[in-house]
Write a structure and sequence with these properties.
Blueprint lengths: L1 H24 L1 H10 L2 H15 L5 H19 L6 H22 L3 H4 L13
Protein name: Apoptosis facilitator Bcl-2-like protein 14
InterPro entries: Bcl-2-like_sf, Bcl2-like
Keywords: Apoptosis, Phosphoprotein
Length: about 120
């Protein structure tokens, strides 16, 4: 189990490192990333990224989209062109703008990811 956890973390880190390397190799992409990196750019990237996953609108897919948004944000923080807090702020804003209505309809973040329909099961007896 520990090996699996460590290996997944390594793969995520390598993916982030590769993203930064690929952006640095491509001068046009690097310049665009430096000059165009705004919330609108981030949101467009996120929209396309989520669209390409083919996720539907049911609860499991909404949870998956939220997780994918967090993963994408995390990978973009590995790119050296921008401060990490800026990228994380864009990720938080995107989550808030795109998923707040669904999360509220589920009863909040905790209940949206609880996986149970009945809150009474959470009480210790």
């Amino acid at each position: 189990e520990d090996y699996a956890i460590q290996r997944v973390v390594e793969l995520l880190r390598e993916s982030g490192d590769q993203l930064d390397e690929e952006i640095k190799k491509d001068k046009v992409l690097s310049k665009a990333f430096q000059n165009l990196f705004s919330y609108a750019f981030f949101a467009s990237v996120a929209d396309l990224f989520l669209m390409r996953t083919g996720a539907a609108a049911d609860a499991d897919q909404q949870r998956a989209k939220i997780a994918l948004t967090a993963e994408m944000t995390s990978k973009l923080t590995a790119v050296d062109n921008h401060p990490m807090n800026r990228v994380l702020g864009f990720g938080a804003k995107y989550l808030q703008e795109h998923f707040t209505p669904w999360v509220q309809s589920q009863g909040g973040w905790e209940r949206a990811f609880d996986g149970t329909e009945d809150d009474d099961n959470d009480e210790v007896q």
